[in-house]
């Protein structure tokens, strides 16, 4: 029977980040997911505020406006401390994925604008970071093999 230092259940954004971070620190990691491949470990778009990709495209987001909009949209049923944690720390996470996972495998984060129109219900905040390959199209992940991480379903 194989032994692991860390076992992570669920290989979507949170689980994949936890597994990758543990593997980066030298742990032998088992990542368990119901999917049969590493193709969709990260969603195609990962939201952040102030990522390097967003800075490269001169996309600026007013943090207070964004937090206030989300809180209003949720009719106050949200913990604004969590929103502020995301707003103030999300760029670091997206930059880490870009630098340590994507670029070594020939891909990168490409910042995107948001909706092409705005209304009261649809206020645009350019928080998107698209996982993109060198040709500028959607990149299908197979990055888990780049770390000492095992994926089992």
From TrEMBL:
Family annotation (InterPro entries): FAD-dep_OxRdtase_2_FAD-bd (IPR003953), FAD/NAD-bd_sf (IPR036188)
Molecular function as annotated in GO: oxidoreductase activity
UniProt keyword Flavoprotein, yes or no: yes
Keyword entries, A-Z: Flavoprotein, Oxidoreductase
The FAD-dependent oxidoreductase 2 FAD-binding domain, residue ranges: 5-110
Oxidoreductase found in the keyword field: yes
Signal peptide, first to last residue: none
Pfam family membership, one: FAD_binding_2
Name this polypeptide is given: FAD-dependent oxidoreductase 2 FAD-binding domain-containing protein
